[in-house]
Predict the 3D structure of the following.
Amino acid sequence: MEKPTIELIFFAGKTCGVCRVLKPKLLEAVQENFPKVNIRVVDVEEEVEFTGQSMVFTLPVVIIKVKHKEMYRFARSFSVYEVLDKLKRASGEELSPIN
């Protein structure tokens, strides 16, 4: 059985302090645990139209899409673990133990 195409979209802004702290932690954890997940980082100031089409009105926002359909959305206050847990559910894979 073929695994579904999974995309993680991270919306951030240059003036968003939480985005600057969360982005490297989240992207590293996703790449380590789910190397086949497509990651897209969106700078909301540069991609205004896409940000609006995605209905993003606060930062940071993470959207997880499976087969091009939005399955999960995280906004403002969320943890790396919450995102990884939803990716695990979407992909059917196990998480690596945290050292």
About this structure: The helical segments are 17-33, 48-53, 80-91.
